């Protein structure tokens, strides 16, 4: 047994019962969480472990840099467009390629659309069931649910008692058939669920409405990207030419398709404002006493920024989504983040299953090395079945990225804390509105609930900014500017023998950057540091714990074999990793299958 | 059967993981080789999960092409029809976003919009641990019989495909020319320049097994999507 205090301010005690939540995923690797709980079921130590396949350099080395986006968008099923955008930006930066204003507007709309889509689906279909109990919804009075709906969102049309009764009957039929479908495998008798049945029924109803609505959001990217499921992107601009006088749907953007986009953008804003935000506030009312999970959000947060107002200018002043770093909880100072500075972002591996040559300490991604060194000799169990990791040794496939030595949280809450600290008018207004509505102090922001709330507010912000860029695009077109691709330096003959660049975006789940080196017109090295690498990072040499680990600390778990609280906090990051399969007791015996949210978790 | 039922033929999987990309490569081949009437849509579903639900809902006839794990000999084709197509996951749950395709089917059913006719044509993969790799020869050889099985079944429902006079060029393939299969294979970096399994040197260590079947699946439980295969 050891008690340690980390430099970032957490007291770790690994004496109590160890609870292991071992989740599984393939694309971004395997994530596992282990915690120790004391006799009061409080988490006193947290260990997050993951496999980060550093596979991109593998598939991209030697390929045409103009094709890299198509590969990176296949890494994972949900960040598709964000990876593609980051990739084309990295290549453009490397080769000094500019894009037209229209392409900037279209890319921003596509990126904002992805944010709206991802946030909405995350809230309703991946995270809501950590707070909402669909089985309890069967006990709701449809009339009272209707009254609740009209109270929280008077302008939402679907609010009659009959409507809620129908949904409830459908749900009942489903539950009685013994097939909970997407609601299978929840802890529906756990006292951690606090909503009254009517709020549960309202939220489940909107789960279905959101499922129906999300398909509209996708169409924006399909139209601009010229292709369904995997839209096209291109270095130097956007792929579909604008031809406002054109008819038919072959490859170009005409008035009909632009009008369709406009309608979707307006409907998205309405849905977020009338459904998502009211639900968020209604649910939060019942959980505002559950303010666990803040982790390092109150002290160390970072964002690269995104959504350039004018094309080709990635300076903080031109980025509408805020950038910067806050450290040591000092909100009065937001530091600039420079992705090229070898002193700022560095990846460390003392607790990761890698080795650096010649005793190197931390490495900047341009000089990144990935030399595996898998060693679990001090862990309990064997390589086929690890019972308990040893967090004093190497214990994760994720490297530990640090900004000037600090473990950082990234994501919607980080962006909103930075925006708030910088005095961004819209963000400050949004945050103050929520704090006032819920009647909670500003510190409440630094919590799992705050993370979930920031995501909703950001969805509203993004829905709004989509319309801003749509108007900008239409004004350009009316003024006779229909360029969407520069053609500038498209031909490799015009490229230097060697170059390097970095592209960054704010992915829905946080700061994302790709670093590329190009040599003799081919990719020489390609490194990604993804948001979940930041949030899911293991300890570093100084013992600082990462954002997931910190967020689990000092949380009460009502039932250790139904760790809904662990999943709630991990899910609030929208991690690109899984968080559930089975829970083991100390002796490695399987206690229960842990499945958290309905879908996919 | 009504005239011209709305039909979706969808390939599922991740093309970056060798045989895991079977479904996408198969639907690509179908697209390049055959023409279909307007009521039929061919789709590269990738690993899009929940974002595919509207396409499933809109289909009356659904054909799913995928790598599946029934514990058969690699390269075995398995055809599963109707209610036998698994909608619920037996064992392992997975990634937050990459909603398993089975969950998508479950959602469509819950919404009361499940396709009337469903066929899953799957292939037992040989290797899905090879990051950046392409289909194995054994698996690639299954494309033809898989397409035949799908087309025969569609034929019974009155849905006819016509062979193209000339196959479409790879640049017009469904997944996009950038990741078209021959360029994908030809431009692959050598193993000496870029190790292919992320941590290959770990995985190939003695005593470590590379298995991707879900643990403790029930007899009828099947993985239809990459993220249900356990292990990682």
Characterise this structure.
By secondary structure, chain A is an alpha+beta fold. Helices cover 36% and strands 15% of the residues of chain A. Chain A has helices at residues 56-60, 68-72, 80-95, 101-127, 142-152, 161-176, 197-225, 255-287, 412-421, 425-438, 448-478, 531-535, 547-552, 564-571; strands at 3-5, 11-13, 17-23, 31-37, 43-50, 301-303, 306-308, 319-321, 324-326, 345-348, 380-382, 385-388, 400-403, 498-507, 510-519, 522-529, 581-584, 590-593. In chain A, a hairpin with a 7-residue loop joins strand 3 and strand 4. In chain A, helix 4 (101-127) packs antiparallel against helix 11 (448-478), helix 5 packs across helix 6 and helix 9 (412-421) crosses helix 11 (448-478). Residues 23-29 and 577-601 of chain A have low confidence and may be disordered. Chain B has 232 residues and is of the alpha/beta class. Chain B has a single domain (7-228), classed as Rossmann fold (3-Layer(aba) Sandwich). In chain B, the strands form two sheets. In chain B, strands 3-1-4-6-5 form a five-stranded mixed beta sheet. Chain B has a two-stranded antiparallel ribbon with strand order 2-7. In chain B, helix 1 (22-33) packs across helix 5. The radius of gyration of chain B is 17 Å and the shape is globular. The N and C termini of chain B lie far apart (43 Å). Residues 88-99 and 197-232 of chain B have low confidence and may be disordered.
């Amino acid at each position: 047994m050891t008690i340690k205090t980390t430099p970032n301010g957490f007291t770790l005690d690994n004496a109590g019962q160890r609870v292991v939540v071992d989740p599984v995923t393939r694309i971004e690797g395997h994530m596992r969480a282990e915690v120790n709980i004391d006799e009061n079921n409080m988490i006193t130590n947290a260990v997050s472990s993951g496999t980060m396949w550093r596979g991109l350099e593998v598939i991209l080395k030697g390929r045409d840099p103009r094709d890299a986006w198509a590969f990176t968008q296949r890494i994972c099923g949900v960040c598709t467009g964000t990876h593609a955008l980051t990739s084309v930006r990295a290549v453009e930066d490397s080769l000094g390629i500019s894009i037209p204003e229209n392409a900037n507007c279209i890319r921003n709309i596509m990126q904002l659309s992805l944010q709206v889509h991802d946030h909405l689906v995350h809230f309703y279909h991946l995270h809501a069931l950590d707070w909402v109990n669909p089985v309890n919804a069967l006990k709701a009075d449809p009339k009272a649910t209707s009254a609740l709906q009209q109270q929280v969102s008077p302008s939402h049309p679907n609010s009659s008692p009959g409507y809620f009764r129908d949904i409830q009957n459908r749900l009942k039929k489903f539950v009685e058939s013994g097939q909970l479908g997407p609601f299978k495998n929840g802890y529906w008798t756990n006292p951690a669920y606090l909503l009254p049945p009517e709020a549960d029924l309202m939220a489940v109803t909107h789960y279905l409405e959101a499922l129906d609505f999300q398909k509209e959001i996708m169409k924006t990217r399909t139209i601009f990207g010229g292709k369904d499921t995997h839209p096209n992107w291109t270095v130097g601009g956007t792929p579909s030419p604008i031809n406002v006088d054109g008819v038919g749907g072959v490859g170009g953007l005409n008035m009909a398709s632009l009008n369709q986009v406009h309608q979707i953008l307006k409907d998205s804003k309405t849905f977020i404002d009338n459904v998502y935000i009211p639900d968020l506030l209604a649910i939060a009312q019942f959980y505002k006493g559950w303010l666990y999970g803040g982790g390092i959000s109150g002290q160390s947060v970072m964002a690269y920024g995104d959504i350039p107002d004018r094309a080709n200018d990635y300076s903080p002043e031109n980025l509408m989504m805020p950038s910067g770093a806050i450290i040591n909880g000092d909100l009065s100072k937001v530091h600039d983040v420079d992705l090229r500075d070898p002193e700022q972002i560095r990846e460390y591996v003392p607790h990761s299953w890698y080795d650096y040559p010649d005793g190197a300490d931390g490495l900047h991604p341009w000089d990144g090395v990935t030399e595996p060194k898998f060693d679990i000799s001090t862990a309990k169990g064997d390589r086929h079945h690890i019972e308990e990791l040893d967090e004093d040794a190497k214990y994760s496939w994720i490297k530990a990225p640090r900004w000037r030595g600090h473990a950082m949280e990234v994501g919607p809450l980080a962006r909103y804390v930075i925006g708030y600290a910088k005095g961004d008018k819209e963000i400050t207004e949004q945050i103050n509105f929520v704090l006032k509505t819920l009647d909670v102090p500003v510190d409440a922001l630094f919590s799992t609930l705050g993370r979930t709330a920031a995501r909703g507010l950001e969805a509203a912000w993004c829905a709004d900014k989509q319309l801003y860029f749509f108007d900008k695009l239409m004004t350009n077109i009316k003024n006779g500017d229909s360029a969407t691709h520069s053609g500038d330096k498209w031909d490799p003959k015009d490229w230097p023998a060697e170059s390097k660049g970095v592209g960054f975006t704010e992915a829905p789940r946080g700061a994302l950057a790709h670093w590329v080196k190009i040599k003799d017109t081919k990719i020489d090295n390609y490194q990604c540091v993804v948001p979940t690498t930041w949030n899911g990072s293991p300890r570093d040499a100084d013992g600082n714990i990462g954002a997931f680990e910190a967020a689990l600390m000092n949380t009460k778990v009502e039932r250790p074999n139904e760790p809904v609280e662990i999943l709630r906090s991990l899910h609030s990051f929208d991690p690109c990793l899984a968080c559930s399969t089975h829970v083991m007791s100390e002796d490695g015996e399987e206690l229960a299958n842990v499945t958290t949210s309905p879908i996919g978790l | 059967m009504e005239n011209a039922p709305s039909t979706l033929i969808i390939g599922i999987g991740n093309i970056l993981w060798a045989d895991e990309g079977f479904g996408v490569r198969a639907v690509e081949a179908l697209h390049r080789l055959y023409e279909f009437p307007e009521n039929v849509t061919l789709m590269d579903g990738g690993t899009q999960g929940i974002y595919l639900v509207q396409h499933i809902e809109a289909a009356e006839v659904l054909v799913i092409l995928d790598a599946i794990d029934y514990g058969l000999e690699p390269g075995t084709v398995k055809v599963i029809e109707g209610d036998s197509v698994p909608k619920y996951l037996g064992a392992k749950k997975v990634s937050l976003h990459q909603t398993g395709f089975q969950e998508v089917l479950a959602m469509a059913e819950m919404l009361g919009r499940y396709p009337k006719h469903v066929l899953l044509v799957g292939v037992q993969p040989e290797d899905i641990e090879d990051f950046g790799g392409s289909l194995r020869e054994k698996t690639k050889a299954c494309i033809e019989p898989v397409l035949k099985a799908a087309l025969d079944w569609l034929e019974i429902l009155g849905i006819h495909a016509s062979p193209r006079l000339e196959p479409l060029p790879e640049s017009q393939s469904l997944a996009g020319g950038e990741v078209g299969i021959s360029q994908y294979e030809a431009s692959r970096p050598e193993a000496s320049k870029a190790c292919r399994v992320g941590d290959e040197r770990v995985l190939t260590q003695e005593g470590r097994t590379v298995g991707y079947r879900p643990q403790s699946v029930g007899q009828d439980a099947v993985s239809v999507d990459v993220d249900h295969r356990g292990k990682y």
